[in-house]
Amino acid sequence: MFKQVNHIQRGLCQTTFSRSIYLHSGKRVRGLKRNPEEIFKTESGSVYGTTEENLQPLKTFLGSSYPISDNLLLQVLTHKSFGNGIKPYNEKLAALGSKLYNLYCLKHITNKPTTNTETAINGKNLDSIGMPLPRALGEREPLAIFAQVNKLNTVMFWKSYNHNLSFAQSGELKVSGQMMFALIGAIGFSHGKTAAENFIEEKLIEGTPSIENIANEFVEQNIRRGDI
Amino acid sequence: MPVKAIPKVSVARNGLGSYIVPCHKIRVNYCNWGGSSKGVREILKSGELNQLGLTKKSIFFEVVKRQGHPSVEFYYNNDSVKDIPVKNMEASDVLKKINQFSQASGAELFKWNHKVLSTNESVRGIWSPMHVAKNDRHKI
Amino acid sequence: MLRLSSRAGARACANFRSSIVKNLSSSLYFSSSSITKHKTTYDNPLEYGTYKSNIYTHRLPESTAEQSPELVALHARLDLPKAYSLSTLSQALNMETKSEGLANNFGLNTLGKSLLSYYVAEYLLIKYPRLPMPIHNQAIDAYMGVEPLSSIGKSWGIQPDTNSKLEKYLAQEPFFMKYGKLRYLEETSKEEVKEDGVIELTGDEISQIEQNHGRYTPSEQDAYAASVRSIIGGLYTHTDELTTKQFIKNHILSRKLPIEQMFQFQQPMRELVRLGDKLGFKDPLEVRLIAETGRLSSHAIFVTGVFVGTEKLGEGVGSSLAESKTRAAVNALMGYYLYSPISSDGEELKVPSDEGYKFEGIVGLGDVAI
What we know:
Chain C: Its main location: mitochondrion. The complex is a heterotrimer. By secondary structure, chain A is mostly helical. Helices cover about 45% and strands about 5% of the residues of chain A. In chain A, the strands form two sheets. In chain A, strands 1-2 form a two-stranded antiparallel sheet. A two-stranded parallel ribbon of chain A has the order 3-4. Chain B has a domain at about 25-100: Glutaredoxin, CATH 3.40.30. In chain B, strand 4 and strand 5 (about 80-85) form a beta hairpin. Chain B is elongated, with a radius of gyration of 25 Å.
C-alpha cells in the first residue's frame, strides 16, 4: 500500500515531495505504522464510524425526545482504550455525566417524603446518605448492568487486555458504566441539565427494570458475598 | 503521561461575587471604676454600642468588664488580632475607632510605590525587540 | 511581649488543670457514653424516607441556637436567606461522631460535596473544554479541594471549639457558645497540652499519610472544609438548587484559578505531533526559525515558531535553538488546551444548568497518549 502526500510551498518555487508509507497489517511490529482499517475495528467486528448499525441501540433507547448528533453519539460509545485514544473519546462527557447523575440520585433520595421527624432537615431525610443502597445508586456498576440488560453496550469501541474474560473481569463493566455516564453527559451538554435529569428519571428510574431495583440487587449480592 | 498537573490553590478575591467582612469579632474591655474608661462606659450606658452592633450584624461583639485601662480588640479572619487602647477617649472617639478598625482587613499596613497592585498579568504584554520589522531591528 | 507571657501563663495553667482532671474521677467532667454500634434502620431499602439513624436522636432546638451570638453573626456574614435555620447552620459545624445525640454534619457534607462537584465540573468543562484530564481534576481540586475550602472556612470567620469543659467552666462560658463553633476535637484531645510547632499524630493519621503519598492534612483543615461543604448542603435543604448554585458561584467560582501555572510538560514536541495526528492536520508540523540576534553573539536569542502549513501554532523565545523550539511547542499546546469558547453574541457561554442553555461550545475530544 503506497500513498502520495504533502505539497509544501516555500517562497516562490514549489517543490513536490512524495513519501511512501507502508501500512502494516497483522501483528504489531515496532516502528511500523499500522493499517487504520484494521485498528479501528472492535473485537466483535464493528467498524468505527457513524453508521446506522453502530448507533442504532442508543438511538432507539433515546427515542425522539433526546436527540443527540451522530458524532457525539459515536464519541459516547468510544472509550479511551480504543485505537490508542486517537479518536474522540468519552472521558469529558462522562466527567459531566457522573457528577450530574450523582447529584440527581442524592436529590432523588433526600426529596422523598419522610417519616423521620427528629433529624430530617426541612422535610429532607439525610439519614439515608451513606447507606449501602443510596450509595450504590450513584455508582457505575448498576448503570453498567442496566446497559447490559437493555443491550445498550452491544457496540462499544474499546479494547480489553483480554476480551475472553467475564463481564466484570475484562473491564466491560467499567467501560459500560462509563459509557452510560457519558450518555447522560452528552444529553447534559446538548440539551441542558434539566433535560438530562428528566432523562434519568424517565429512562433509568422509571425504566424497566428500574435502576433502583438493579442497584438493590447489586447491594444484596455484595452483602451475600460479604463485601459490605 | 503526556502532561502532568501541578497542584495549585485558587486565590481568594474578596468582593468579587461576594464580600465577607474580614473583622469577625470585637471585644470591648472596660473598667467599671477607672476614669480612663469613662468614654467606653458612656457608649455602653447610652446604648450607642448596641445601635452599632445592630448595624454591624456580621460582627460578634463581646463586652468584658475588667480592671485597668480600656481597650478594644479586633479579631480578623487572617488570624490577626489588633488591640487598640482607648484610654481617656471621648465616647465619640471610641465609636470612631470601632468604626475604623471594624472595616480594616487585618493585614499589616504597607507602602506600595507602584500604581497598580493586582493578581492579574499585564494586558499590554512585554515589548519584544525581536518582533519589529527586520530592517528596523537593532544590529549587534 | 504581653501576648507571649499570657500564653505561657495559660500553658502553665493548662498543665495544672490537666493534672486535676487526672486526679478527679472522670464521671465529673465526662459523661461516660455507652458505646453504641452505628446502625441505621429502615422499613425497605427503597423507601428512602424511612431511614432512621439510632445514634443521632435530635437536632438543636432553634431557640438554643438563637442564643449563640457567633452563630447569628455567621448567618449574617454569609448573607444567608431567612429560611436557613440557625440549628442547621450549627449542625453544619458539628463534626462530632460521638456527640450527645446531636445530629452531625455527615449528610449535609455529602450533599454539599455533590452540589459543589457538579457546579465546579460543569463550569470548567464549558469554560476550558480541552483541558487534559489530569489538569481538569487538579483544577477541580484547586476550587473545591480541602485546602481552598478550609481557607474559605477561615475567611468566613468560623472559630474552632478548642477549650475543654474545665476551661469553659473556669471562664464561665455559657453552654450555648459552643453551638456557633466548629466542633471537631474530642474532649480528650482538647485537654492535651499543645506545644507550638509540634503536632502529635495518632495511629490513624500516620496510616492516612502513607495512603496520601506523604501528604498530611491536619484534621482542622479537614473539619473546616467539611463545614463549608455542609453549609452549602444546608443551603440546598432550606432553599432551592438555584440559590445554592448562585452561592457556589459567588463564593467558590469567583476565585482566581492560576490555570496556566498548572501544566508540567514531559515531552511537548512529541505531544504536539500526536495531537496533530489526532486532529488530522493535513500538513506536517514544522519548526521554523523566525528571528535571532546572531548565534555567535555572547548571549544569543532565538525566536522559533511551530507551523502547520502557513498557520503558526505557537512561538517561543530561548537562548538556544533547542530551548526556543521546546518553548514554541509548549506555547502551541497551551494555546490549544486553554482554548475557551464564547457564545455567538460574544458573551461568556452559558452552562448546562443555566436557563435558556443552548449548546454552542465544544466537547473535549480526550487527551493524546504518548
